[in-house]
């Protein structure tokens, strides 16, 4: 997914070409992210309104998102459905990539529901369009994995359009066990099986998030929400939520089947399509079969990231994501699931830390530990949170200078290898991400 896009009603950036290759005339800047800007534009030849996402190749490469950009293009090329934002054309230059997309004049569905909950009939109408799009994507081997009202747009007729396929998976990412294993999603929408790190079925995960969306449309708020992230995860694991009093018995039953914490018994898309509550007034919409153009242009003569997103990093291999905030200093934050007791985990952390001559400060009440040493050049915080009766979530935040200890990083090279045995490995699972 692209970094968070900040909505902006301002004018065109001075850096933007007002006439793109003589084909598109750029208008207002609609949003910007770390390496992308989105503009409203007009096709000079036809007068058609489009949205153009201008992506900096340099920033994409620097941020390590090149493969993600290629995957998003490949996925959107597969899709042509009335309820999916259409990628019409890709223009590539030496410095930028331009996504020419269908323009959704009505904006985000999130903006509409934020003003007040929808009626049951209106909620059903948008849910029907959502399932039509999701079912189509699944039939093409595409699993969205980040469905939420912010990624659902509305066109000029107020029909729904699914967008943002940057975190989508395709069928060739499925492992031999028949499951996906990359852990991603937005916290309040994430399915319980993703948190458990046992692999998951992309179709069932999308159905769960569709259930969250339907609840939000009808209630006006999230079913699972808590300022404490771990408390929210526990609610998701246990399926703890309450319906607002105005929810009809039929809708309660239907949403309960969507938000079944057991993916094996959760309702499927085929079953949704046959459900009496869903079928009321439903009209199936068929897909299109338009081809996408991809062009390369020399731009040498041209003028020269709720909605905060959180990738849930519960990697069985300690998926370390380094973040450099000052010269020579590395900060990281990571999480992993363990079947060990909190006492044993903190004990192992303390043992490993003392072997490296670090000072350890423990808080047994809430199972926290602070590690520090090397004259303040290294500090780390370890916290253990209960998820289920058998599993805990361990959070590690650390900061250190790269040059200490002969160039070796204390956490990465010294402490982390000694703790790998604590990471929960479900029977039959394979380490690594897809």
Low-confidence stretches: 1-16, 166-185, 290-327, 428-434
CATH topology of the largest domain: Transferase(Phosphotransferase), domain 1
Helix content: 25-40%
- Structural category: alpha+beta
Into which percentage range does the β-strand content fall? 15-25%
Assembly level: single chain
In DSSP terms, counting alpha (H) and pi (I) runs of 4 or more, how many helices? 12
Choose one word for the global shape. Answer: globular
How much is the average pLDDT?
75
Instruction: Give the class-level CATH name of the largest domain.
Output: Mainly Alpha
What is the first-to-last residue Cα distance?
16 Å
Describe the protein's architecture and organization.
The protein contains twelve helices and 19 strands. It starts with 5 loop residues before the first strand and ends in a 15-residue tail after the last helix. Helix 4 packs antiparallel against helix 6 and helix 6 (202-219) packs antiparallel against helix 8. Strands 1, 2, 3, 4, 5, 6, 7 and 13 form an eight-stranded mixed sheet that branches. Strands 14-15-19-18-17-16 form a six-stranded antiparallel sheet, with helices on one face. The protein is α+β, with helices and mostly antiparallel strands. The chain is 28% helix and 24% strand. It folds into three domains: 6-103, Phosphorylase Kinase, domain 1; 107-279, Transferase(Phosphotransferase) domain 1 (Transferase(Phosphotransferase), domain 1); 322-422, TATA-Binding Protein (2-Layer Sandwich), CATH 3.30.310.80. The longest helix has 20 residues, at 120-139. Strand 16 and strand 17 form a beta hairpin.
